[in-house]
TrEMBL record:
SUPFAM superfamilies: NagB/RpiA/CoA transferase-like (SSF100950), Winged helix' DNA-binding domain (SSF46785). Keywords: Repressor, Transcription, Transcription regulation. The keyword Repressor applies. Residues 3-58 form the HTH deoR-type domain. InterPro entries: Carb_Metab_HTH_regulators (IPR050313), DeoR-like_C (IPR014036), DeoR_HTH (IPR001034), NagB/RpiA_transferase-like (IPR037171), WH-like_DNA-bd_sf (IPR036388), WH_DNA-bd_sf (IPR036390). PANTHER family: GLYCEROL-3-PHOSPHATE REGULON REPRESSOR, HTH-TYPE TRANSCRIPTIONAL REGULATOR SRLR-RELATED. One of its GO terms (molecular function) is DNA-binding transcription factor activity. This is Transcriptional regulator. It comes from Klebsiella michiganensis. The keyword Transcription regulation applies.
Length: 135
């Protein structure tokens, strides 16, 4: 079997089984693990799979833009955000990651809540300050 044929079969197996292991593929194709590792390396370089220790996984889908994500499962995000806001007490320091759910949380923070918010996200502080009537 040619290496190109083997690579096509590896991709088919990966699509069906959602993961492949170098040792299993080596036995299945009766070739050395070095040959399989080389195949996996080449397929990863072509963007057709993601290499992991001992094998490979399908390529992860790209993360959707924030404008798309903010309109997905809105009710769930609002529910989570509301619960998070209820946990914040005056005087606390709150560390907030970037994202659509945390963006919703920032939007829901009461104007009169005296707390310190620390974040790496550029968009979250501006959303928060826009909603502050007293600041």
């Amino acid at each position: 079997m040619l290496a190109s044929q083997r690579k096509q079969q590896i991709l088919q197996i990966l699509a069906e089984e959602k993961q492949v292991m170098s040792g299993d593929l080596s036995q299945r194709f009766s070739v050395s693990e070095d040959s399989i590792r080389r195949d996996l390396r080449e397929l990863a370089a072509e963007g057709k799979l993601q290499r992991v220790h001992g094998g490979a996984l399908p390529v992860s889908e790209a993360i959707a833009p924030i404008e798309t994500r903010k309109n997905v499962q809105i009710a769930s995000k609002q529910s989570i955000a509301q619960r998070a806001v209820e946990l914040i007490q005056p005087g606390q320091v709150v560390i907030v990651d970037g994202g659509t759910t945390t963006g919703e949380m920032m939007r829901l923070l009461p104007d009169n809540l005296a707390c310190t918010v620390v974040t790496h996200s550029r968009g979250l502080p501006s959303r928060w300050w826009k909603n502050r009537s007293s600041r």
